[in-house]
Write a structure and sequence with these properties.
This protein is of the alpha/beta class. It contains 14 helices and twelve strands. Helix 8 links the parallel strand 7 and strand 8.
Amino acid sequence: MAVRLQIGTKYVLGKDHPTFVIAEIGQNHQGDVNIAKKLIKTAKDCGADCVKFQKTCLDEKFNKAALNRPYNSEHSWGATYGDHKKYLELSDEDFRELQAFAYEMDILFTASAMDSNSLQFLKSLKVPFIKIGSGDSNNFILIKEAAATNIPLIISTGMQDLKGVRKMYETVAEFHKKFALLHCVSAYPTPLADVNLNVINLYKEEFPDIVVGYSGHELGIDVTLAAVALGAKVIERHITLDKHQKGSDHKCSLEPKEFETLVKKIRDLEVALGKPVKVFQNSEISCFEKLGKSIVAAKQLKKGDVLKLDALKIKVAEPKGLDASLIGSIIGKRVIVDIAEDESINKNYIE
């Protein structure tokens, strides 16, 4: 039975279904609802299937010391890490407004649940799926709580080894199989030597009963396209209006033209991948008519001669004769008409 994951009423993820493309807005909205709306519209225009944000209750995700830590980065929006995160965090009402806007744009809307409170809030929004980010890949309390909601989950697996990923799988599988695991490396940007796309094949072997995908943080789009070629059925990439904006995620994000190109190339690649059925394609007919090989007489043949291999050759012939692949089947047959040297041999010439 083919592995399938239903997301909302419109999308089915899995084999023989289109790749599900998530535009990760994250906090690239700079804490501004209007920029967030522009990113939602941009993602829709680029062909993404879903936009994803990040939802955090700061006091639940961070302890006081972490929030009070000085944050002197060029990307900082505040003197402390808590001030920085508070500046970027959208309110519950902002999320409701953005969800309504995404509905108007006809694009799915969801977010990563960064803590239990945020998980329950997203549940109240009736999002089509909940994302568990790599930052919570070892947070099995949250993963179990998310699984218990019975809402489909898409889970990134950065900062984990295979043993940890198996535990993630087993934790959710106790409740249901309505989830996908995304290969992910939590480095921004990810060095090519660390991407290790063959983990996608590993996941398909280890977890054959769920959907497998890829969440990429590398520069450019080529690696992500390769992930699709390897069988990733969910793709997640960050989207930004400008890579040079303030914020650590912008550098490994895709600007609108890049994101649009990625989606187009994914759709082209899906067409080219096709199905595992090898046939003589209609598009090959003209080439076959011009260059396809036939069986011809290597010498003059008389009526009654018995065909031997040295009496036959394979050539591009006009008009076409018997297909070259049939040469073995006519050895030992008797010809019933005279055949000139270099003439095509057709089925009416032999008994």
